[in-house]
Structure formats: structure tokens, C-alpha cells
Design goal:
With about 230 residues, this protein is of the alpha+beta class. It has helices at about 1-15, 20-30, 35-45, 75-80, 210-215, and strands at about 45-50, 60-65, 70-75, 85-90, 95-105, 110-115, 140-145, 150-165, 165-170, 185, 190-200, 205-210.
Length: about 230
Amino acid sequence: MKKRWIAALALGAMLAAGPYAASSIQAEQQAPLAADESYRLASDAVFYLRALSADGTVSATGTGVLLSSGGAAATAYHVVKGAARLEAVLADGTVASVKVGRYDERTDAAMLELSARKGGGKYPYVTLRSAKLEHGDAVYAIGFPLKNTPIVTQGIVSSPDAVVNGRSRVLIDAAIASGMSGGPLIDEQGRLTGIISGSLRTMEGIHLAVGMADLTALLPDGFRQAD
């Protein structure tokens, strides 16, 4: 009788919070996937990002990640800062023009908008993680340090909320190389948990990511993942 009473209380709390809360709880409790499965869930949404000068030469390269089927995306602001033009090379090899939307130089986050796909097709995109990161959570970093060749590295969350130069940062020990800036940090369900920003010079092997709070603060008005 006591067990049924406790179960009823738990069910009542979920119903009071609404269907979204119930579905979110179920989603966050999914069993962790293997590294290759987590990568596969996100990889099609990750793209090689080229920043071009006014004369058309490549001035910088980095990585970006699609957040919606309509072409909303994110990257690190320092990758796109000062660029005359931007191009995204998608997982299938097609090239899309890119515009910069909202950005925050202080947090090093920037929203992007990719041009419409030919034939009205939809873009692949990553699922956004709603649960907070914890110390020791397993994460994977994806990026393009070798031009059009993506790589994935594995690590843990060293700190989910470290203050670095007066700004909140996620610290990770997954290996990061030049060209991976702006790429996604994903969890063991392939969900986006942050954006790769750079390295912490005072601690060898520890790298920086923009957290989800700073990232979602820049999402465009009326943002929806699926159109």
C-alpha cells in the first residue's frame, strides 16, 4: 500500500509539471550510447566552416553545428569575427553560404543562418540537451582540424561551471586542435552540451567550451528545431 502511495505521488508530480516535463525526464534517463553511436547521431549536423576575406581567400577555418532543420546553426564567435564572407561545407559535400546572426563576443558564441537548401530540403540538426552537466560526465568533441576531415575526441567534464576571466565556462579534457573551434560538444546520447571555444593556457590538456545557457540566450526569436 505504501509503495502504491509513493508511486501515485510521483505520477501526480509529473502530471502537475505537464507532458513536457515527463518527456524530458524520460529523455534524460536514456542509457548512454557507445562513442560511435553518439558520434553518428550528431555528425551529419556538423560542418566545416570557412571564413573568407574580401578577395575570396580563406582567412580562418573552424567548425559549426546545425541546430534546426531550417538552417539555424552555432559556432564560436572568434571563428567568424571580421570575415567578409562565410561558407559551410556540409557532411554530404555541398556548400552553403552563411550569415552571422546574434553573437556575444564576451562568451565567444555566435548564431549562424545557412542558406536554404536546394529543392526545399531540410537540414539535419543536433538535439539540445536540457539537463545540466555534472563533474565527470562523458563528452565528445567534434571538429575539422584537417580541413574537410572530421575527427571526434573523447573526454570528461572537468568542471561544468568554471569562472575563467570573469566568464562561465565548461572545462573539458577531450583533446582539441586548431580548426575544432565552434564545433559541438556532445553527450553520450549525441545531444549538444556546448560549443568548443579554445584551450586554457594555465592548465595543460584542459579546454574551454561555451555552455548551453550562453548559447541558448542567443537563439533567434521563435526558434524551433524542426520546421
